[in-house]
Amino acid sequence: MTRVTFGVSASSIAANIAIKQNAIDHDGKFPAASEVVHKSFYVDDCLTGAQDSTSALKLQQKLTKLLTRRICSKKVEYKRLVVIL
Question: What is the pTM of this model?
């Protein structure tokens, strides 16, 4: 599966699971961005900050790199929902 079909009742949770699983998979390479994904995301909205504009720009670039990485195909179970990534 390469896309999440919206309009399906479980699609928003499937997208959220995919974003968080990507952060788990690439935590070693993008630790700060991964932490932001786990603590500062609501569905697909990121609400975070930084001490200064330079730090904010670096974090934004790391988040972009993390979230544009390809998700490896795998089966993820969340409560009773099974998502194939």
Answer: 0.69
